[in-house]
Amino acid sequence: MTGLSRRGFNILLGASAITSLSLPSISASHKAELPESKNARVVIVGGGWSGLSIAKYLKQENSKIDVVLVERRQSFHSLPLSNLWLGGLMSQAQLTYRFEDAAKMGGYTYFNASMTGLDRSKRRIETNKGWIDYDSLVLAPGVEYDYSSFGVKDPSAITELKSKFPAGFVSVDEQLQLKQQLASFKKGVFVLTAPPGIYRCAASPYERACLIAATFKLRNIKGKVLLIDSREEPAVNGEGFLSAFEELYGDTIEYMNSTGIEGVDPVSKTIKTDFDDIKFDGGAIYPRTRAAGMIERFGLSDPESPQKEAKIDPFNYNFIGDESVYIAGDCRPMPFSKSASVANSEGKHIAKVIAARLQGREVKWVTPESVCYSMVNTEPQEAILSRSFYRFDKKSKQWAFDPRSKPYNNRSERLGTETFTWGETHFRELFG
Q1: Residue 424 near residue 4, CB atoms below 8 Å
Q2: Strand, helix or coil at 266?
Q3: Going from the N-terminus, what domains does the chain have, and what CATH number goes with each?
Q4: 407 neighbors 386 (Cβ within 8 angstroms)
Q5: Do the Cβ atoms of 171 and 315 come closer than 8 Å?
Q6: Which of 74, 128, 164, 301 is most buried, by the most CB atoms less than 10 A from its CB?
Q7: What value does the mean pLDDT take over residues 146-158?
Q8: Are 289 and 199 in contact (CB under 8 A)?
Q9: Distance (Å, rounded) from C-alpha 20 to C-alpha 54?
Q10: Whether the model pTM is above 0.85
Q11: What pLDDT is stored for residue 264 in this prediction?
Q12: What angle do CA 278, 279, 281 make, to 5 degrees?
């Protein structure tokens, strides 16, 4: 990806997920400084892979729609592909882009603000820079960590875990801390955890284990990568990852499967599992994820969802009972991979749904596509691939994989090259 074309800019500040800063009440005393719109306005909150895709493709569906992207950061940092940065295969600049550039290329408005309130009766959101009325609203605020899922409830312990052993799947700040931790790691046990439930990029913890192990081998570090997983085998590409663990990193990676975590003490650096207490020296501890807090605070979550995800029509993505509010990305409840490729393909469908409904029409549901490349070796650069599609069984009322779904477990340099090509293509698609 060394030839990726982009404009220069500062490294972004802040987190990857949008965080609501107050209770859902409308109190702004002034209107946001946005151009008046003569046509329907669609407000999208959250500039991740989902929000960016919806914004772009809404304008392609109907250029007259007034699309406003509300995002509190000035720059986008891609967490998908960031394992390659941690492993020394990409630069941070190759993952970092300006929202202004995306908006200019896509023909929509970027509004640098934080959403703080929602009044669905008025079709209005509040931000720290004034209120905005909408005809349709899309919330794509990302995820938060649920440290209580493995027994950590003390706020100071959570803060300690976030700052010293961050998961690295929500913000660039976590990524920088993790990169620094790896740079200074000399020896011992580096622990990784694969969380239960559906989490951001199912393959990431396993890919990360491979790339950190490769780094240890390159730097002759006398250490072990310990990957703790409650599953019997990796959540995706099981055969491919287990083969890489054994054949490439048999003396470096220990895969502790079928193991539940019952507690973590960041001070003594101890993980309590259902089998034993494990000491560690460094790590990236990834707890179960949940939908961003604003989904629950604004009364949009499904009380039956263990991950506080939104209660939506799974085919049209609108909140049940309100066809003007849509929830996308990591906050939707369907059991699809929470990956960049799914967010991107779902975004195209959601854009079609909204554009059609604004004209009094409906569109048919189309399966999202999950394309997940995982780099498992650095010398040579070899990857594996999982490609998935989905279907809904009307009889059982259950989601299942479409027959076209297929894992590519034989690692190859061809797939390694395609990993970078996938990134180049999609960054160019969203940012120009």
Answers
A1: yes
A2: coil
A3: 41-142+292-357 (3.50.50.60), 145-289 (3.50.50.60)
A4: yes
A5: no
A6: 301
A7: 95
A8: yes
A9: 21
A10: yes
A11: 97
A12: 140
